[in-house]
Specification:
Strand order of the largest sheet: 1-4-2-3-5
Number of helices: 7
Order of helices and strands: HEEEHEHHHHEH
Distance between the termini: 40 Å
Largest sheet: 5 strands, mixed, barrel
Number of strands: 5
């Protein structure tokens, strides 16, 4: 929790309004995004690392890239993002203007009987995009990262990772019965 509190403090007080929590890597994982930190922008707090600018994102690198990233001490992108709403909306508007405009256009029908149909139509007409590549990578120098040291983290995007995490904490999943 101390990392999130430090990120909130930074997002509300510094020009760098978007702070990602970066996880110190313990292996050269190719299924995760990586963050290459740059210069320090805050002093460390009690039990919290300093916040750093971001030099570059590496999205799911090949093994020959992941190994050097790991050996250089780069961070995994946890996708925990702390930001003011206005900062995130500004980022979306600048990096994906067509997508931002498409969502803005349905604002007038939200909380109406047309909302469900409008949202369904919107999603049917927009292309799929990778958030890291379309948004974060394009403005990495405007973002910051807080290394979240001393915490357990795992991307649960794969069943094998869910099972490994359950085993690590001593839980066994029950048998699912579909009726």
């Amino acid at each position: 929790m101390r990392h999130v509190e430090a990120a909130i403090s930074t997002a509300s007080s510094l020009p760098v309004k978007i702070v990602l929590l970066g996880i110190p890597a313990d292996r050269p994982e190719i299924d995760y995004g990586w963050i290459e930190p740059a210069e320090q922008i805050t002093q460390p707090g009690p039990g919290v690392e300093p916040i750093l600018r971001i030099r570059r994102f590496w999205e799911k690198p090949a093994p020959y890239i992941a190994v050097p990233l790991w050996s250089r001490g780069l961070l995994w992108n946890s996708f925990v993002i702390v930001a003011q709403v206005g900062a995130m909306l500004d980022l979306f508007a600048r990096m994906t203007p067509q997508l931002y405009t498409a969502f803005a256009e349905i604002g007038s029908i939200l909380d109406s009987s047309f909302e469900s149909n409008g949202i369904e139509k919107l999603y049917a007409g927009i292309p799929s995009q990778n958030f890291s590549e379309a948004i974060l990578a394009g403005c990495s120098s405007e973002l910051s990262v807080l290394p979240a040291t001393g915490v357990e983290w795992n991307d649960l995007g794969e069943p094998s990772r869910v099972m490994a995490t359950l085993a690590k904490i001593g839980m066994q999943p029950g048998r699912l019965v579909w009726q």
